Amino acid sequence: MKEDQIVVVGGGAAGMMAAIQAAGQGVPVVLLEKNEKLGKKLFITGKGRCNLTNDCDTEDLFQNVMTNPKFLYSAFYGFSNRMTVDYFEELGLACKTERGGRVFPASDHSSDVIRALERELHRKGVEVRLQARVKHLMVRDGTCEGVVLEDGKRMRAKSVILATGGISYPGTGACRDGFQIAEEAGHRIVPLQPSLVPLELKEDTKKWMGVSLKNVTASVFADGKKVYSEFGEMLFTHFGVSGPIILKASAVLHRYLEKKLKLEIDLKPALDEKTLDERIVRDFQTCRNKKLENSLDRLLPRSLIPLVIGQSGLTGDKRIHELTREERHRLGQAVKGLSFTVSGLRGFDEAIITKGGIHVKEVDPATMESKLVKGLYFAGEMLDLDALTGGFNLQIAWSTGHLAGLSCAETIQGG
Hints:
By secondary structure, this protein is an alpha+beta fold. The chain folds into two domains: 6-194 and 356-414, FAD/NAD(P)-binding domain (3-Layer(bba) Sandwich), CATH 3.50.50; 198-346, Helicase, Ruva Protein, domain 3. Helix content is 30%, strand content 26%. The protein has helices at residues 13-23, 40-44, 58-63, 73-78, 81-90, 110-123, 177-184, 244-253, 273-284, 305-311, 325-336, 392-414; strands at residues 6-9, 29-33, 53-54, 65-67, 95-97, 102-105, 127-130, 134-140, 143-149, 154-156, 159-162, 189-195, 199-201, 212-222, 225-236, 240-242, 261-266, 338-345, 353-358, 376-378, 386-387. β15 and β16 form a beta hairpin. α1 runs parallel beside α6 (110-123), α1 (13-23) runs parallel beside α12 (392-414) and α9 (273-284) crosses α11. The chain is elongated. The two termini are 19 Å apart. The mean pLDDT is 95.
Protein backbone atom coordinates (compact mmCIF):
# COMPACT_ATOMS: atom_id res chain seq x y z
CA MET A 1 0.00 0.00 0.00
CA LYS A 2 1.46 3.32 -1.08
CA GLU A 3 1.22 5.97 1.63
CA ASP A 4 1.19 8.84 -0.89
CA GLN A 5 -1.65 7.42 -3.01
CA ILE A 6 -4.93 9.08 -3.89
CA VAL A 7 -8.13 7.08 -3.53
CA VAL A 8 -10.99 8.05 -5.86
CA VAL A 9 -14.39 6.72 -4.79
CA GLY A 10 -16.80 6.30 -7.70
CA GLY A 11 -16.17 5.17 -11.27
CA GLY A 12 -18.56 7.44 -13.09
CA ALA A 13 -17.77 10.43 -15.31
CA ALA A 14 -16.38 12.67 -12.54
CA GLY A 15 -14.50 9.87 -10.79
CA MET A 16 -12.80 8.57 -13.93
CA MET A 17 -11.81 12.09 -14.98
CA ALA A 18 -10.43 12.86 -11.49
CA ALA A 19 -8.42 9.64 -11.41
CA ILE A 20 -6.92 10.25 -14.86
CA GLN A 21 -5.90 13.81 -14.05
CA ALA A 22 -4.38 12.92 -10.69
CA ALA A 23 -2.44 9.99 -12.15
CA GLY A 24 -1.25 12.22 -14.98
CA GLN A 25 0.70 14.21 -12.37
CA GLY A 26 2.68 11.12 -11.42
CA VAL A 27 0.79 10.32 -8.22
CA PRO A 28 -0.33 6.71 -7.50
CA VAL A 29 -4.13 6.49 -7.84
CA VAL A 30 -6.62 3.78 -6.88
CA LEU A 31 -10.16 4.05 -8.30
CA LEU A 32 -12.83 2.22 -6.29
CA GLU A 33 -16.17 1.37 -7.92
CA LYS A 34 -18.87 -0.63 -6.14
CA ASN A 35 -20.44 -1.88 -9.40
CA GLU A 36 -19.08 -4.70 -11.56
CA LYS A 37 -18.00 -2.20 -14.23
CA LEU A 38 -17.22 1.49 -14.69
CA GLY A 39 -19.58 4.12 -16.07
CA LYS A 40 -22.95 2.37 -15.62
CA LYS A 41 -24.92 5.62 -15.53
CA LEU A 42 -22.76 7.13 -18.27
CA PHE A 43 -23.76 4.17 -20.44
CA ILE A 44 -27.46 5.15 -20.42
CA THR A 45 -27.09 8.94 -20.72
CA GLY A 46 -28.53 10.59 -23.80
CA LYS A 47 -30.62 7.45 -24.45
CA GLY A 48 -27.42 5.47 -24.79
CA ARG A 49 -25.74 8.00 -27.06
CA CYS A 50 -24.04 10.05 -24.29
CA ASN A 51 -24.50 13.79 -24.72
CA LEU A 52 -20.91 14.63 -23.70
CA THR A 53 -21.18 18.40 -23.45
CA ASN A 54 -22.58 21.42 -25.26
CA ASP A 55 -20.76 23.44 -27.92
CA CYS A 56 -21.95 26.83 -26.63
CA ASP A 57 -19.73 29.74 -25.61
CA THR A 58 -18.09 28.96 -22.29
CA GLU A 59 -19.88 31.95 -20.73
CA ASP A 60 -23.23 30.38 -21.70
CA LEU A 61 -22.50 27.30 -19.61
CA PHE A 62 -23.28 29.33 -16.51
CA GLN A 63 -26.68 30.35 -17.90
CA ASN A 64 -27.67 26.68 -18.07
CA VAL A 65 -26.63 25.84 -14.51
CA MET A 66 -29.68 26.10 -12.26
CA THR A 67 -28.01 25.87 -8.85
CA ASN A 68 -24.82 27.64 -7.66
CA PRO A 69 -23.41 28.54 -11.10
CA LYS A 70 -20.80 30.94 -9.64
CA PHE A 71 -19.24 28.05 -7.73
CA LEU A 72 -18.18 26.57 -11.08
CA TYR A 73 -16.11 29.54 -12.29
CA SER A 74 -12.69 27.92 -11.71
CA ALA A 75 -13.88 24.49 -12.81
CA PHE A 76 -15.45 25.64 -16.09
CA TYR A 77 -12.61 27.94 -17.09
CA GLY A 78 -10.01 25.37 -16.04
CA PHE A 79 -11.60 22.68 -18.19
CA SER A 80 -14.23 24.16 -20.51
CA ASN A 81 -16.67 22.50 -22.87
CA ARG A 82 -14.38 23.13 -25.85
CA MET A 83 -11.47 21.62 -23.92
CA THR A 84 -13.67 18.60 -23.18
CA VAL A 85 -14.29 17.97 -26.88
CA ASP A 86 -10.59 18.39 -27.68
CA TYR A 87 -9.70 16.06 -24.82
CA PHE A 88 -11.92 13.23 -26.01
CA GLU A 89 -10.80 13.61 -29.60
CA GLU A 90 -7.20 13.33 -28.39
CA LEU A 91 -8.26 10.07 -26.74
CA GLY A 92 -9.35 8.86 -30.17
CA LEU A 93 -13.08 9.52 -29.77
CA ALA A 94 -14.52 11.33 -32.79
CA CYS A 95 -17.29 13.77 -31.79
CA LYS A 96 -20.16 15.47 -33.60
CA THR A 97 -22.41 18.43 -32.77
CA GLU A 98 -26.16 18.32 -33.24
CA ARG A 99 -29.10 20.68 -32.83
CA GLY A 100 -28.92 22.86 -29.73
CA GLY A 101 -25.14 22.50 -29.55
CA ARG A 102 -25.38 18.96 -28.15
CA VAL A 103 -22.10 17.07 -28.57
CA PHE A 104 -22.17 13.28 -29.03
CA PRO A 105 -19.63 10.62 -29.94
CA ALA A 106 -19.72 10.27 -33.74
CA SER A 107 -20.54 6.58 -33.30
CA ASP A 108 -23.66 7.37 -31.24
CA HIS A 109 -22.48 4.81 -28.68
CA SER A 110 -21.90 5.81 -25.05
CA SER A 111 -19.83 2.64 -24.68
CA ASP A 112 -17.15 4.28 -26.85
CA VAL A 113 -16.87 7.14 -24.34
CA ILE A 114 -16.42 4.69 -21.48
CA ARG A 115 -13.85 2.66 -23.44
CA ALA A 116 -11.83 5.79 -24.22
CA LEU A 117 -11.71 6.66 -20.52
CA GLU A 118 -10.87 3.09 -19.52
CA ARG A 119 -7.95 3.04 -21.97
CA GLU A 120 -6.66 6.30 -20.51
CA LEU A 121 -7.02 5.02 -16.94
CA HIS A 122 -4.90 2.02 -17.93
CA ARG A 123 -2.37 4.16 -19.79
CA LYS A 124 -1.98 6.47 -16.78
CA GLY A 125 -1.45 3.51 -14.47
CA VAL A 126 -4.61 3.91 -12.37
CA GLU A 127 -5.39 0.82 -10.31
CA VAL A 128 -9.11 0.10 -10.81
CA ARG A 129 -10.88 -2.03 -8.21
CA LEU A 130 -14.44 -3.08 -9.05
CA GLN A 131 -17.08 -4.28 -6.57
CA ALA A 132 -15.26 -2.29 -3.90
CA ARG A 133 -17.80 -0.46 -1.75
CA VAL A 134 -16.60 2.27 0.60
CA LYS A 135 -18.50 2.61 3.88
CA HIS A 136 -16.56 5.24 5.85
CA LEU A 137 -13.72 7.74 5.67
CA MET A 138 -10.73 7.53 7.96
CA VAL A 139 -10.61 11.01 9.47
CA ARG A 140 -8.23 12.03 12.27
CA ASP A 141 -7.66 15.54 13.63
CA GLY A 142 -9.59 17.09 10.73
CA THR A 143 -7.59 15.26 8.05
CA CYS A 144 -8.75 12.46 5.77
CA GLU A 145 -6.29 9.56 5.92
CA GLY A 146 -8.07 6.96 3.82
CA VAL A 147 -11.24 4.87 3.51
CA VAL A 148 -12.85 1.84 5.13
CA LEU A 149 -14.34 -0.71 2.74
CA GLU A 150 -17.55 -2.68 3.27
CA ASP A 151 -15.55 -5.77 4.26
CA GLY A 152 -13.80 -3.79 6.99
CA LYS A 153 -10.49 -3.43 5.17
CA ARG A 154 -8.75 -0.06 5.51
CA MET A 155 -7.00 1.75 2.70
CA ARG A 156 -4.67 4.53 3.73
CA ALA A 157 -4.34 7.54 1.41
CA LYS A 158 -2.88 11.00 1.31
CA SER A 159 -6.14 12.28 -0.12
CA VAL A 160 -9.61 10.97 -1.05
CA ILE A 161 -11.84 12.19 -3.85
CA LEU A 162 -15.53 11.39 -3.37
CA ALA A 163 -17.36 11.17 -6.71
CA THR A 164 -20.17 8.69 -6.07
CA GLY A 165 -22.81 10.61 -8.04
CA GLY A 166 -26.46 11.34 -7.36
CA ILE A 167 -29.32 8.94 -6.62
CA SER A 168 -31.26 9.09 -9.90
CA TYR A 169 -31.54 5.86 -11.92
CA PRO A 170 -31.13 3.51 -8.91
CA GLY A 171 -31.00 0.60 -11.37
CA THR A 172 -27.42 1.64 -12.13
CA GLY A 173 -26.46 1.19 -8.49
CA ALA A 174 -27.00 4.84 -7.56
CA CYS A 175 -27.60 5.20 -3.82
CA ARG A 176 -27.01 7.52 -0.86
CA ASP A 177 -23.67 6.00 0.24
CA GLY A 178 -21.56 8.97 -0.78
CA PHE A 179 -23.85 11.48 0.90
CA GLN A 180 -23.89 9.46 4.12
CA ILE A 181 -20.08 9.25 4.06
CA ALA A 182 -19.82 13.04 3.55
CA GLU A 183 -22.38 13.66 6.28
CA GLU A 184 -20.39 11.51 8.73
CA ALA A 185 -17.40 13.75 7.95
CA GLY A 186 -19.44 16.78 9.01
CA HIS A 187 -20.81 18.06 5.71
CA ARG A 188 -24.33 19.39 5.28
CA ILE A 189 -26.45 17.81 2.57
CA VAL A 190 -28.96 20.02 0.76
CA PRO A 191 -32.12 17.83 0.49
CA LEU A 192 -32.00 15.56 -2.56
CA GLN A 193 -34.76 15.90 -5.15
CA PRO A 194 -35.35 14.44 -8.62
CA SER A 195 -34.73 16.88 -11.48
CA LEU A 196 -35.02 16.82 -15.26
CA VAL A 197 -38.03 14.62 -14.74
CA PRO A 198 -41.55 14.35 -16.27
CA LEU A 199 -44.52 16.18 -14.76
CA GLU A 200 -47.63 14.55 -13.35
CA LEU A 201 -50.95 16.18 -14.23
CA LYS A 202 -54.22 16.12 -12.29
CA GLU A 203 -56.15 15.46 -15.49
CA ASP A 204 -56.45 11.92 -16.91
CA THR A 205 -54.05 11.91 -19.87
CA LYS A 206 -54.22 8.20 -20.78
CA LYS A 207 -56.26 8.84 -23.93
CA TRP A 208 -53.46 11.07 -25.30
CA MET A 209 -50.62 8.78 -24.21
CA GLY A 210 -47.92 8.70 -26.88
CA VAL A 211 -49.08 11.88 -28.64
CA SER A 212 -45.95 13.86 -29.49
CA LEU A 213 -46.04 17.60 -30.09
CA LYS A 214 -43.36 19.53 -31.97
CA ASN A 215 -42.85 23.28 -32.25
CA VAL A 216 -45.09 24.11 -29.31
CA THR A 217 -44.54 26.39 -26.32
CA ALA A 218 -45.07 25.09 -22.79
CA SER A 219 -45.54 27.66 -20.02
CA VAL A 220 -45.98 27.05 -16.30
CA PHE A 221 -47.75 29.44 -13.94
CA ALA A 222 -47.33 29.40 -10.14
CA ASP A 223 -50.31 31.02 -8.40
CA GLY A 224 -51.02 32.81 -11.68
CA LYS A 225 -47.48 34.11 -12.26
CA LYS A 226 -45.55 32.77 -15.25
CA VAL A 227 -42.36 31.11 -13.98
CA TYR A 228 -41.32 29.12 -17.05
CA SER A 229 -41.80 29.16 -20.82
CA GLU A 230 -39.96 27.18 -23.49
CA PHE A 231 -40.41 26.30 -27.18
CA GLY A 232 -39.74 22.81 -28.49
CA GLU A 233 -40.98 19.23 -28.22
CA MET A 234 -43.05 17.35 -25.63
CA LEU A 235 -45.30 14.34 -25.37
CA PHE A 236 -48.21 13.01 -23.36
CA THR A 237 -47.80 9.97 -21.11
CA HIS A 238 -50.18 7.84 -19.03
CA PHE A 239 -49.47 10.06 -15.99
CA GLY A 240 -48.96 13.50 -17.55
CA VAL A 241 -46.32 15.00 -19.83
CA SER A 242 -42.66 14.49 -20.69
CA GLY A 243 -40.20 15.46 -23.43
CA PRO A 244 -37.38 18.05 -23.61
CA ILE A 245 -39.28 21.22 -22.73
CA ILE A 246 -41.10 19.46 -19.88
CA LEU A 247 -37.93 18.00 -18.36
CA LYS A 248 -36.40 21.46 -18.49
CA ALA A 249 -39.47 22.87 -16.70
CA SER A 250 -38.97 20.44 -13.82
CA ALA A 251 -35.57 22.00 -13.04
CA VAL A 252 -37.34 25.31 -12.40
CA LEU A 253 -40.44 24.08 -10.56
CA HIS A 254 -38.83 22.73 -7.36
CA ARG A 255 -39.13 26.10 -5.65
CA TYR A 256 -42.83 26.40 -6.57
CA LEU A 257 -44.19 22.97 -5.61
CA GLU A 258 -46.18 24.41 -2.69
CA LYS A 259 -48.01 26.75 -5.06
CA LYS A 260 -50.88 26.09 -7.46
CA LEU A 261 -49.19 25.13 -10.74
CA LYS A 262 -50.83 25.39 -14.13
CA LEU A 263 -49.35 24.17 -17.42
CA GLU A 264 -50.38 25.93 -20.62
CA ILE A 265 -49.50 24.61 -24.08
CA ASP A 266 -49.54 26.94 -27.05
CA LEU A 267 -50.08 24.60 -30.00
CA LYS A 268 -49.45 27.38 -32.55
CA PRO A 269 -46.81 29.69 -31.05
CA ALA A 270 -45.79 31.04 -34.49
CA LEU A 271 -49.25 32.62 -34.90
CA ASP A 272 -50.62 35.46 -32.78
CA GLU A 273 -54.33 35.35 -31.94
CA LYS A 274 -55.34 37.54 -34.91
CA THR A 275 -53.32 35.51 -37.43
CA LEU A 276 -54.61 32.25 -35.96
CA ASP A 277 -58.20 33.47 -36.23
CA GLU A 278 -57.62 34.35 -39.89
CA ARG A 279 -56.21 30.85 -40.44
CA ILE A 280 -59.24 29.25 -38.78
CA VAL A 281 -61.62 31.36 -40.93
CA ARG A 282 -59.84 30.19 -44.09
CA ASP A 283 -59.98 26.55 -43.02
CA PHE A 284 -63.68 26.82 -42.17
CA GLN A 285 -64.62 28.29 -45.54
CA THR A 286 -64.35 24.85 -47.15
CA CYS A 287 -66.37 23.01 -44.50
CA ARG A 288 -69.20 25.30 -43.47
CA ASN A 289 -71.74 22.49 -43.15
CA LYS A 290 -69.42 20.09 -41.31
CA LYS A 291 -69.38 19.45 -37.60
CA LEU A 292 -66.66 21.25 -35.62
CA GLU A 293 -65.06 17.93 -34.58
CA ASN A 294 -64.51 17.07 -38.27
CA SER A 295 -63.16 20.49 -39.31
CA LEU A 296 -59.87 20.92 -37.44
CA ASP A 297 -57.68 18.19 -38.97
CA ARG A 298 -55.49 20.66 -40.84
CA LEU A 299 -54.92 22.72 -37.69
CA LEU A 300 -54.49 20.15 -34.91
CA PRO A 301 -53.42 16.55 -34.22
CA ARG A 302 -56.55 14.42 -34.56
CA SER A 303 -56.34 13.03 -31.03
CA LEU A 304 -56.26 16.51 -29.46
CA ILE A 305 -59.28 17.92 -31.30
CA PRO A 306 -61.85 16.80 -28.66
CA LEU A 307 -59.63 18.23 -25.91
CA VAL A 308 -59.31 21.64 -27.59
CA ILE A 309 -63.03 21.78 -28.33
CA GLY A 310 -63.83 20.84 -24.73
CA GLN A 311 -61.54 23.49 -23.26
CA SER A 312 -63.11 26.10 -25.53
CA GLY A 313 -66.51 25.33 -24.01
CA LEU A 314 -67.96 24.23 -27.36
CA THR A 315 -69.40 20.90 -28.51
CA GLY A 316 -68.00 18.80 -31.33
CA ASP A 317 -71.32 18.36 -33.10
CA LYS A 318 -71.83 22.08 -33.64
CA ARG A 319 -71.89 23.01 -37.35
CA ILE A 320 -69.26 25.44 -38.60
CA HIS A 321 -71.84 27.86 -40.05
CA GLU A 322 -73.47 28.05 -36.61
CA LEU A 323 -70.31 29.30 -34.88
CA THR A 324 -70.38 32.88 -33.65
CA ARG A 325 -67.32 35.09 -33.86
CA GLU A 326 -66.99 34.95 -30.06
CA GLU A 327 -67.07 31.13 -30.11
CA ARG A 328 -64.42 31.06 -32.82
CA HIS A 329 -62.22 33.30 -30.68
CA ARG A 330 -62.69 30.93 -27.71
CA LEU A 331 -61.57 28.09 -29.93
CA GLY A 332 -58.45 30.06 -30.86
CA GLN A 333 -57.73 30.79 -27.21
CA ALA A 334 -57.87 27.06 -26.42
CA VAL A 335 -55.41 26.36 -29.25
CA LYS A 336 -53.07 29.04 -27.85
CA GLY A 337 -53.48 27.99 -24.22
CA LEU A 338 -54.40 24.36 -23.65
CA SER A 339 -54.54 24.22 -19.86
CA PHE A 340 -53.68 21.52 -17.28
CA THR A 341 -53.05 21.32 -13.54
CA VAL A 342 -49.58 20.14 -12.46
CA SER A 343 -49.89 17.80 -9.47
CA GLY A 344 -46.20 16.96 -8.99
CA LEU A 345 -42.93 15.60 -10.34
CA ARG A 346 -42.03 11.99 -11.10
CA GLY A 347 -39.51 10.23 -8.86
CA PHE A 348 -35.80 9.35 -8.94
CA ASP A 349 -36.46 6.28 -11.11
CA GLU A 350 -37.21 8.62 -14.01
CA ALA A 351 -35.01 11.58 -13.09
CA ILE A 352 -31.99 12.32 -15.25
CA ILE A 353 -30.17 14.04 -12.39
CA THR A 354 -30.29 14.70 -8.66
CA LYS A 355 -30.92 18.20 -7.35
CA GLY A 356 -29.31 18.99 -4.00
CA GLY A 357 -26.18 17.47 -2.46
CA ILE A 358 -23.12 18.61 -0.57
CA HIS A 359 -23.40 22.26 0.44
CA VAL A 360 -20.98 24.16 -1.82
CA LYS A 361 -20.17 26.73 0.87
CA GLU A 362 -18.26 23.93 2.60
CA VAL A 363 -16.13 23.22 -0.51
CA ASP A 364 -13.31 25.36 -1.96
CA PRO A 365 -14.41 26.21 -5.54
CA ALA A 366 -10.78 26.76 -6.61
CA THR A 367 -9.71 23.21 -5.69
CA MET A 368 -12.84 21.13 -4.85
CA GLU A 369 -11.29 20.39 -1.44
CA SER A 370 -13.48 20.23 1.64
CA LYS A 371 -13.21 23.27 3.90
CA LEU A 372 -13.99 21.00 6.85
CA VAL A 373 -11.71 18.00 6.27
CA LYS A 374 -8.21 18.42 4.88
CA GLY A 375 -7.38 15.99 2.08
CA LEU A 376 -11.03 15.30 1.19
CA TYR A 377 -12.21 16.39 -2.27
CA PHE A 378 -15.55 16.23 -4.09
CA ALA A 379 -16.53 16.04 -7.75
CA GLY A 380 -19.63 15.67 -9.90
CA GLU A 381 -23.27 15.18 -9.02
CA MET A 382 -22.58 14.76 -5.30
CA LEU A 383 -22.26 18.53 -5.09
CA ASP A 384 -25.31 20.81 -4.91
CA LEU A 385 -25.03 21.65 -8.61
CA ASP A 386 -27.51 20.90 -11.38
CA ALA A 387 -28.10 22.13 -14.89
CA LEU A 388 -30.54 21.88 -17.79
CA THR A 389 -30.51 19.21 -20.47
CA GLY A 390 -28.09 19.49 -23.38
CA GLY A 391 -24.81 18.11 -22.02
CA PHE A 392 -24.43 20.66 -19.22
CA ASN A 393 -24.63 18.20 -16.32
CA LEU A 394 -21.92 15.99 -17.79
CA GLN A 395 -19.79 19.10 -18.29
CA ILE A 396 -20.11 19.77 -14.55
CA ALA A 397 -18.82 16.23 -13.96
CA TRP A 398 -15.87 16.59 -16.35
CA SER A 399 -14.89 20.05 -15.07
CA THR A 400 -15.16 19.33 -11.34
CA GLY A 401 -13.49 15.94 -11.76
CA HIS A 402 -10.64 17.51 -13.71
CA LEU A 403 -10.14 20.23 -11.08
CA ALA A 404 -10.37 17.84 -8.12
CA GLY A 405 -7.84 15.42 -9.65
CA LEU A 406 -5.29 18.10 -10.50
CA SER A 407 -5.69 19.98 -7.20
CA CYS A 408 -5.40 16.83 -5.15
CA ALA A 409 -2.22 15.68 -6.92
CA GLU A 410 -0.61 19.13 -6.76
CA THR A 411 -1.26 19.35 -3.01
CA ILE A 412 0.42 15.99 -2.44
CA GLN A 413 3.41 16.92 -4.59
CA GLY A 414 3.70 20.30 -2.90
CA GLY A 415 3.36 18.78 0.55
